[in-house]
Amino acid sequence: MLQNQPEKEEMDANMILKSTKVSEVIQNKRRLVEVPYTASVADTLNALLANNILAVPVAAPPGQWIGAGGSMILESDKLTGSVRKQYIGMVSMLDILLHVAECGPGTDIEANLMSVPVSAIIGRSLEGLSLWSINPDTRVMDVMEPFSKGIHRALVPLESHMDHVGLELKESSPGYRMLTQMDIAQFFKLHSNELQSITTSSVGQLGAVNKGAFAVPAGMQVRNVVKWMRNASLNAVAIVDGSPDAEKGPMLMIFLIVCQGSNMLSPWGVLLYGHPRAREEDWWVLFQPLI
User: Fold this and answer.
1) Given CB 3.0 to 4.6 Å as the disulfide criterion, which of 68, 94, 156, 241 pairs with 89?
2) With 0-12 CB in 10 A as exposed, 13-18 as middle and 19+ as buried, what is 82?
3) Is the pLDDT of residue 166 over 60?
4) Rounded to two decimals, what is the model's pTM?
5) Who's near 182: CB < 8 A, 6+ residues apart?
6) pLDDT tens per residue across span 236-273
7) Which residues are CB-contacts of 231 (< 8 A; sequence separation ≥ 6)?
8) What's the pLDDT tens digit per position in 76-120?
């Protein structure tokens, strides 16, 4: 029985997603950029900017730290197998912004960034509470699920050697590369012909439309925005014009992560009616649970 074109395209897409390993996706990526646990927050920020990246793993001497989320990701010598370092966490630009936002009034920000070690800000954001590694033989299809649920990046060992230490899984390798959501997106672009059943579909057809949206007014202080992003487990927000309409009187501000259709258990959502000059300190109610 002859297949129609849509069925063939779907089979081609499934085949390439199930046959391609993440080791193939990262094979041409540059050497892993990392910072030592003793580096200052300022040094880490400079490393991010210099390499045009959004996050770096933090390395420390082995056996002295518990990795983020209880992880044990080690780098070993290729010849002797002896452990040289342990990755204890991942620090992103959001972690740095949250650290700055939490500095008290009158803090010398520049001096603070130069004196605080990067190890002190691991886990400021929700994603930073864990450090993920992915086996290099994992298929692209399998890595798409965790990446669709809030994981933006993971370490991939060049050579995977796993052992159990008590209840913990120990990952050891002579080197690592970083796999990110952007790498997967670029993989889709590179193989757009084979993945036509996906790449030619609309965002709506793929079910990728986020029916809940969170927005902040353009005049809100960055300090408060990043704090509330963390509290609501958000990595991005829309920015809207918060200016009042003179003809309509006091501004109606609506901030909510809405529930749509049959999904009536969205845990966050609030309507806030207020004057445009309402104090930002009073807006904490935006994050009170509905259930």
Assistant:
1) 68
2) exposed
3) no
4) 0.74
5) none
6) 777 776 554 444 443 333 333 333 333 323 333 333 33
7) 287
8) 887 787 888 999 999 999 999 999 988 888 899 999 999 999 999
The structure tokens 């692209």 sit at 140
Between CA 210 and CA 62 the distance in angstroms is 42
Question: How far is residue 291's CA from residue 153's CA, in Å, rounded to a whole number?
Answer: 31
Calculate ∠ Cα 47-186-152, nearest 5°: 55
Q: Which two tokens stand for residue 36?
A: 């030592």
CA dihedral in degrees (110, 115, 117, 123; nearest 10)? -50
pLDDT digits (tens, 9 = 90+) for 170-194: 666 778 999 999 999 899 888 888 8
Measured CA angle at 224 (ends 258, 266), to 5 deg: 15
Write out the H or E segment, with its range, that includes residue 176. strand 176-180
Give the chain's count of helices (H) and strands (E): 9, 12
Question: Residue for token digits 């390993």?
Answer: 21
- How far apart CA 214 and CA 254 sit, in angstroms, is 9
- 236-to-121, 214, 215, 225 alpha-carbon distances in Å: 20, 9, 9, 10
Instruction: Report the alpha-carbon distance of residue 229 to residue 239 in Å, rounded.
Output: 13
Report how far residue 255's alpha carbon sits from residue 187's, in angstroms, rounded to the nearest whole number: 35
Determine the Cα–Cα distance for residues 188 and 119; give it in Å rounded to an integer: 35
State how far Cα 141 lies from the chain centre: 19
- Mean pLDDT of the region 10-30: 88
Per-residue pLDDT at 41 exceeds 50: yes
Alpha helices in the chain (DSSP H): 5-19, 22-25, 41-51, 93-101, 109-115, 140-147, 181-190, 196-199, 222-231
Q: State the Cα–Cα distance between residues 32 and 56, nearest whole angstrom.
A: 8
